[in-house]
Amino acid sequence: MIDNIFDVSLKTIGLLHINGESLGRINSSAYTSYIKVLYLPKGCRVKVDFEFYETKDAALFFVAPNQRLSIERVGELPGFFIFYNQDFYCIQLHDDEVACDGLLFNNIHNMPMTVVPPSEAGFIDYLFSQLQDEFRLKESSHEEMLRTYLKQLLIKSTRLWKQQHLDGVLTNKDNDPDMFRRFTQLVDAHYKQKHTVADYADLLLVAPKTLTNKFKRMNLPQPGEIIKNRIMLEAKRLLVHTAMSAKEIAYELGYEDPAYFSRLFQIKSGESPSAFRAKYLAKGEAVVTPSNTVLS
User: Which residues, other chains included, contact 112 with Cβ-Cβ below 8 Å and sequence gap of 6+?
Assistant: First the structure.
């Protein structure tokens, strides 16, 4: 039974402690459809999609509904797990408020973790303490207070992410740090239909060469590689979590030539789609669902 939950008119947000007792439920499919924020102490091991992360210090994780989360090890101290749906707070619709889409979620480095420096830990602890209190009190404006604390957490975390991953970009006044965020937002929205740098340059109203040069000047991965990496990540998700064939996945991701898609997968991952799936089946990590199930 979860006491820390607000669930009214399709709008849902909840808060759980992360410990040995709650681990099984958090790692289950119960929260797959939710946007998730984790606040973990040092000593934890987390898997997001196909990457593992160790927390050497306190850290925040931001996991979108299309990502797969598994907490492999908890620390000596408990952590916190926030889950909420888009009806409660949609970061795309409120981009001007928190500007975290393309940074905390769906970012250019596919990095879901933000380290919490000791100097900021007090404020983050305060926000989680206030959230817990608000869930218990349930006084007037309960919903808006919960949303306010969530927004503060997202805003602070976005600033920390920028400092940790874009420090060199931010200090150069000639750079355009918001360009890569807009680019990654567009890639995440259109990667199944648009596969070239020119496609996204058109959406951003710049020349392809201009876009490429901007990323080069900011010492960021090249746009073409970011597009391919996003497509390959989705291909891996579909191989592991559905029963779709490589040919079906190729069509799902916008490739009319399945053979070309398989060659691209081989180049990017070092193995064929069938070998990649077989590897995860052998590890017992693949969760195959009916072939009409498509992850977005």
Answer: 48, 53, 61, 62, 63, 67, 104, 105
